[in-house]
Amino acid sequence: QQPVQSPQAVILREGEDAVINCSSSKALYSVHWYRQKHGEAPVFLMILLKGGEQKGHEKISASFNEKKQQSSLYLTASQLSYSGTYFCGTGHNFNKFYFGSGTKLNVKP
Amino acid sequence: DTGVSQNPRHKITKRGQNVTFRCDPISEHNRLYWYRQTLGQGPEFLTYFQNEAQLEKSRLLSDRFSAERPKGSFSTLEIQRTEQGDSAMYLCASSFRQGQETQYFGPGTRLLVL
């Protein structure tokens, strides 16, 4: 039931782009994306609901393919502040929520 | 600060002792979640409340774990007879009302069982 994230780790130079993928073996009601920095709590980035929508937040956007049960997070023109571990969380009903194991992103100058 | 708060932030205990953590959600949020996170892993769902009702409990939550939300506001998570494997970050999150709403996380309580 835990979603699968790929890649597990990414190293970028400032200004480069990255894509993080999240897939589930079960039907999805929603996908949430969070970023967590070392020693801190996860911070909400965006939520995508059923309907295959795409959302954007500054230079971070995401898509949700309901049929393929997949979501992708797009980071464009990465900044040093983007470094951290990105988690997707998948909602399958109103009571349970599962997080992936995370993608560690390291943006270097 | 009107975010989710958790206390204590850190707890060191000896194996076999009982510990209790507290979570104060954002005031208008009626849903409250507990998660456990170990190093290098994503948060693992433990249990979930809607108001004072505990609606879901993970199989990860053994009989030594109990959670309450007596008046639908703050929540407590108690671990009895702690084991070294209980060492982890315990995260609380809250969300509002219905649907797959955004969960806002507290800073967590880091537990170390010696």
Structure commentary:
The complex is a heterodimer of chains A (109) and B (114). With 109 residues, chain A is mostly beta strands. Chain A is built from no helices and 11 strands. Chain A has strands at residues 4-6, 9-13, 18-23, 30-36, 43-49, 54-57, 60-65, 70-75, 84-91, 97-99, 103-108. In chain A, strands 2, 4, 5, 9, 10 and 11 form a 6-stranded mixed β-sheet that branches. In chain A, strands 1-3-8-7-6 form a 5-stranded antiparallel β-sheet, with no helix packed on it. The relative contact order of chain A is 0.35. The model of chain A has no long low-confidence stretch (mean pLDDT 88). Chain B is an all-beta fold and 114 residues long. In chain B, 0% of the residues lie in helices and 49% in strands. Chain B is built from no helices and 11 strands. Chain B has strands at 5-7, 10-13, 19-24, 31-37, 44-50, 53-57, 65-68, 75-79, 88-95, 104-105, 109-113. The mean pLDDT of chain B is 91. Classes of the chains: A mainly beta (109), B mainly beta (114). At the A-B interface, strand 4, strand 5, strand 9 and strand 10 of A face strand 5 and strand 10 of B.
Residue runs with pLDDT of under 50 for 5 or more positions of chain B: none
| Count of helical stretches of chain B | 0
Shape of chain A: globular
- Quote the average pLDDT of chain A: 88
The CA-CA distance between the termini of chain A, in Å, is 37 Å
Identify the most extensive interface between protein chains. A-B, 24 and 23 residues
